[in-house]
Amino acid sequence: MLEKLADRIRRAREGVVLTGAGISAESGVPTFRGKEGLWGKFKPEELATMEAFMANPKIVWEWYNWRRELMGKVKPNSGHYALAELGEWFEQYTVVTQNVDGLHRAAGSPRVLELHGNIYRNKCSECNHLTPDDLEIDPTHIPTCTRCGGKIRPDVVWFGELLPEGTIEEAFAVSERADIFFSVGTSALVHPAASLPVIARQHGAVLVEINPEETPLTEFADYSFRARSGELLPELIGLLRRKGGC
């Protein structure tokens, strides 16, 4: 199956990849659920909301600074690097991710659509104006927006918020054009991201699923691999290299 997939990739023009928590888990990115210690008594749903931020921005920023510190120690894994290299075999190539850890960019993927934002970026809580990436946040003195004076918050999608309109629209657009669509490390349960592979399949794309467990996509996939992305994707890249060209 992998050799047949490699042949299909070499004949394709546009490729799209959707990734979920599974590929980040292979790098050791923590889920931040059920942890012991200071933050163990909180659920993400209690902190990752605008209501929580407005009520107590200090504690929300303390939590995000703690998360950033932990996630800053995590590195891309072989699956991230393989996806970055996979783009060499397509004229057009996009990685769409539900993850906020920035690992696809760190691995070198040139075009990444971050549906849920990026935990290392900041924006205004009022006008959404982005602030410099190197801005450090002191939870006791949260900086304000230079444009409107609103408090600065993490540039991630919180519970109850819509995905960035332009980003999700572009994700649907590339999915409709895709010749091959890869669903990697995602349960295919969270919408609207879960709709992307369905849309791609309806528009004629070859659908490839890489996930250790079966998902709702499995029965519709042209190629479905019960495997970890960090193991299977480098093998796929090896096949493509041996066949030559890119």
Automatic annotation (TrEMBL):
Active site: 116 (proton acceptor)
Alphabetized GO MF terms: histone deacetylase activity, NAD-dependent; NAD+ binding; protein-malonyllysine demalonylase activity; protein-succinyllysine desuccinylase activity; zinc ion binding
Catalytic activity entry: N(6)-succinyl-L-lysyl-[protein] + NAD(+) + H2O = 2''-O-succinyl-ADP-D-ribose + nicotinamide + L-lysyl-[protein]; N(6)-acetyl-L-lysyl-[protein] + NAD(+) + H2O = 2''-O-acetyl-ADP-D-ribose + nicotinamide + L-lysyl-[protein]
InterPro entries in the record: DHS-like_NAD/FAD-binding_dom, NAD-dep_sirtuin_deacylases, Sirtuin, Sirtuin_cat_small_dom_sf, Sirtuin_class_III, Ssirtuin_cat_dom
Cofactor names: Zn(2+)
Domain Deacetylase sirtuin-type as annotated: residue spans: 1-243
CDD domains: SIRT5_Af1_CobB
Classification via SUPFAM superfamilies: DHS-like NAD/FAD-binding domain (SSF52467)
Localization: Cytoplasm
Cofactor remark from the record: Binds 1 zinc ion per subunit.
Residues that, per the record, bind Zn(2+): 124, 127, 145, 148
Highest rank taxon of the organism: Bacteria
Residue positions binding substrate: 64, 67
Residues where NAD(+) binds: 20-39, 98-101, 185-187, 211-213, 229
Entry keywords, A to Z: Cytoplasm, Metal-binding, NAD, Transferase, Zinc
Family: Belongs to the sirtuin family. Class III subfamily.
Domain notes: 2 residues (Tyr-64 and Arg-67) present in a large hydrophobic pocket are probably involved in substrate specificity. They are important for desuccinylation activity, but dispensable for deacetylation activity.
HAMAP family: Sirtuin_ClassIII (MF_01121)
Annotated function: NAD-dependent lysine deacetylase and desuccinylase that specifically removes acetyl and succinyl groups on target proteins. Modulates the activities of several proteins which are inactive in their acylated form.
NCBIfam families membership: PRK00481.1-3
Protein name: NAD-dependent protein deacylase
Source organism of the structure: candidate division GN15 bacterium
